[in-house]
Specification:
The chain is of the alpha+beta class and 263 residues long. The protein has helices at 45-49, 79-82, 85-101, 109-124, 128-142, 180-185, 197-211, 225-243, 250-261, and strands at 2-15, 19-26, 30-36, 55-62, 67-76, 168-171, 176-178, 192-195.
């Protein structure tokens, strides 16, 4: 059976001697793994049309075990990402995050639309940092792991009120901010990360921007110095906590971010 879907190629690997297998995030069917026949041959037309980050309209044949790509009408290849070493590393990292939170063949149109917007912003923006933090929050949110930055995850009170008085903490196990009162009482929340008021506000802004992804302008938020470093710490530790592992591409992303922040 043939079907058509808008999709984004996330990954491509050799299959046997002649073929390739592409992981495609489709708007209609979610993550699909599809064989691209003959794509290892230099003259193959489909070879160039199924490179990672290709966005287009895919015609697929649903086989007994795997799908097969039969035609592609390309819309965008995101050359501004592919030709930029750092942006490409970020894109690979976001692909890895996405494929870890989204099960195969589970349709998630909101997440598809967000991911497409993320690639557009990653290509446009000079400083990819904010795009990546915004993308992470959006992906986590639409996959059901949204952290809370405005309300205390223990008592539900607004945490912004307690910002002036005392430090606020992000609880990994609670998945969000803890107010100062709860921090002094609650021990079983496990590892806490102390954050500044500016960090919490920026995370809240990023999270709100990620919630209204369609049709989203690129986030116009920035952070430097301590706030940026704290946001990095929260996002790295929270994602590792949620996934119960470190993503393979995380160390490279982190080394770029730490280099950039020390410049
Ligand atoms: Zn509380």
């Amino acid at each position: 059976m043939f079907y058509q879907s808008e999709g984004i190629v996330l990954d491509q690997a050799d299959l046997g001697e002649n073929d390739k297998i592409a992981t495609i995030f489709t708007r209609q069917e979610g993550l699909v793994r599809a064989v691209v026949k003959g794509a290892q041959r230099p003259k193959s037309k489909l070879r160039g049309l199924t490179q990672p980050l290709t966005h287009g309209l895919f015609q697929l044949y649903r086989g007994r075990s795997l799908e097969r790509v039969t035609q592609v009408s390309m819309r965008n290849g995101f050359p501004g990402i592919i030709q930029d070493y750092e942006k490409m590393i970020y894109a690979r990292y976001l692909v890895e995050l996405l494929t870890n939170v989204l099960p195969e063949k589970e349709r998630n149109r909101a997440l598809f639309d967000l991911f497409l917007a993320v690639l557009g912003c990653l290509e446009q923006k000079e400083d990819p940092w904010v795009v990546v933090r915004w993308a992470e929050l959006g992906i986590l949110k639409l996959a059901g792991f949204a952290p809370s930055f405005s309300r205390c995850v223990s008592c539900g009170n607004g945490v912004q009120e307690s910002l002036q008085a005392s430090p606020v903490y992000f609880s990994l196990r609670g998945g969000g901010a803890l107010c100062s009162e709860c921090t002094s009482q609650v021990r079983p929340y496990g590892e806490l990360i102390q954050v500044s008021p500016g960090t919490l506000r920026t995370l809240e802004l990023l999270s709100t921007a990620a919630a209204s992804a369609k049709p989203s302008p690129c986030p116009n938020i920035t952070a430097r110095g301590q706030v940026r470093a704290e946001i990095n710490e929260v996002s790295r530790k929270y994602i590792a906590f949620v996934l119960e592992k470190r993503l393979k591409s995380a160390p490279l992303v982190e080394s770029i971010e730490d280099d950039n922040s020390s410049k």
